[in-house]
Specification:
Number of helices: 3
Radius of gyration: 12 Å
Largest sheet: 4 strands, antiparallel
CATH topology: Chitinase A, domain 3
Order of helices and strands: EHHEHEE
Shape: globular
C-alpha cells in the first residue's frame, strides 16, 4: 500500500449537486476545470488538487475511499463532515 498518494477532489454541499457533477465527469468533462467552477473547497484554485498526503491526514470517509482508488480513477460520491466529495486519484 502506498505511504502517500496524490488526489484532487470536488466538494459541494448537496448530494444532488455531487451526483450531477459525477455524471458530467463520467461523460468526459475535465476534472480540473469542473473543480474550478463547482467546488466549494479552496483547492478549486488548483483544479481540486490536494497534493500528496499520507494516512491520518484527511477525514476518515475521504481517506478510506481515496486510498482504495487506482491512479486516474474517480470515486462515487463520498459524504464527510464537510459535505459531498468526488475524488480523483492522481498518483
Amino acid at each position: 500500500m502506498a505511504d502517500k498518494i496524490r488526489c484532487a477532489h470536488i466538494l459541494v454541499e448537496k448530494f444532488t449537486q455531487a451526483e450531477e457533477i459525477l455524471k458530467l465527469l463520467q461523460s468526459g468533462a475535465d476534472f480540473a476545470k469542473t473543480a474550478a467552477e463547482k467546488s466549494t473547497c479552496p483547492s478549486r484554485r488548483r483544479g481540486g488538487d490536494l497534493g500528496y498526503f499520507g494516512h491520518g491526514v484527511m477525514v476518515r470517509p475521504f481517506e478510506q475511499v481515496a486510498f482504495a482508488l487506482q491512479k486516474g480513477q474517480l470515486s462515487n460520491v463520498v459524504k464527510s463532515e464537510f459535505g459531498y466529495h468526488i475524488i480523483k486519484r492522481l498518483d
